[in-house]
Amino acid sequence: MDEQWLYQIRLELVDSSAEAARHEPADPVLEPLSLVLRKHGATLQCQFDAFAAYVAEAERTGTGKFPLYAWTRATIEDPTKEAKYIKSFALHIEGEAVYAREKAEALEAELRPLVGGSIVAAMSKHDTNPANNPQPPKRCRA
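Above: the chain sequence. Below: its structure as tokens.
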């Protein structure tokens, strides 16, 4: 049954690696991670930066077309959540934010040795099953 879902790998980077990944992705300190990502056609997307871009686009073009605007704006304005999401990175494969289980598992397997080291603090795999994903509070729904 779970074959219908798509997946995404997310990494929590250590503070110095997160800073480099956001502002200087070619930094040699990231090379072990960069090698795995290149092999899988994967790129990093900082969750905080993605949220901020969503809010900026909504404000530029009209928030009515962005159902998660209020929730996302509240998230980026919360210092505790900013501290969390500034280190959280979604991995996109070949430009896709979610991908087949096989691709996710192959990437996950090669990243596992980096977890707990000087670059990657933690790794998680998420699926598109709505039952496994938080829903915005009613007060934040459009």
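The chain has six helices and four strands.
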